[in-house]
Amino acid sequence: MAKQTRKHTENDDTVIRYSIQDEYDSEKIAKIGKALSSPDRVRIMRMLSVKPTNIYTLATQLALPFSSVHRHIEILSDSGLVITNYKPTPKGHEKICSSTVLSAVIDFDGERPDENRSATVEMPVGMYRECKITPPCGILSERGKLDRFDDPSVFYRPDTHSAELIWFNSGYVVYYFPHSRTDKTIKRISFSFELCSETMFYDNDWKSDITVEINDCECATFTSLGDFGGRRGNYTPDFWPLTSSQFGKLWTVSLDKNGVSVDAAQLTSKVTISDLHLNDAPFIKFKIGIKENATHIGGMNLFGKKFGDFNQAIVMNVSYDKL
Known about the structure:
- This protein is mainly beta and 323 residues long.
- The chain has helices at 23-35, 39-48, 55-62, 66-79; strands spanning 15-19, 53-54, 82-89, 92-99, 103-107, 118-123, 130-134, 138-140, 165-168, 170-178, 186-196, 208-214, 217-224, 249-256, 259-262, 265-266, 283-290, 300-303, 314-320.
- Helix 1 packs antiparallel against helix 4 and helix 3 crosses helix 4 (66-79).
- The termini are far apart.
- Residues 1-12 and 111-115 have low confidence and may be disordered.
């Protein structure tokens, strides 16, 4: 039987292209280099290219210690080559690992073939412009708490820009991403962020319905399956107790002419990118939170670069059609 291969094109979300001429790409290129510097991690990627797999299966089939595979997955996740999700089981949740890319291209010449075709902005989680917060709630920087917990007034302090973890029971936070209006046609916009539910201490089986709005247009509601803890997040500081929320799941909400997708799964939403009127203002408004009438009001933790499992804050990517 002939080997089956997945077809992809240059514009496929599973194809990534970086340039050494782009300062923003430098850290990503270095992380991919580190991730693929180990033959064992290359073997893991080979398995994940076939289908998503849990860590136990990876360790068994590759004859590697479970702890080693767990660490390899952390490094691959940090590079963006792998994502992990939690699948409910009768005994709790199992960690499922999936490959995020089919092809990675790094340009070494002086040209930047994609520089006019996409724009990326990373927004610190503490740089929200609007908020509505109900307790329990709190804000942490990488060095400790900014003020007392469970007091919504803390969210209006002038130093919240230093936040690396924010949490609340219901309500929302709103971010304004800079956007240069252009005559180019925007074909796709996506927001990527690390998030989990929120309850006392942590509970890996605690649902919360999260709603995302872009430019005041309700785009998607998805369910976070838990407030994750039980082990320290890859970037969570040592001062934060293991009995508290430690890490989240990396979510990606995208819109194009076909509609809305969450983690590449197309939704039934009728909203398309044209509904957002992205070139009407010099900013793009991103709102995320829990609605008052949500089925599961289970709070949310929003992680920055210095907390959780992923070294990123909220990342917006805007893609343009070819000129």
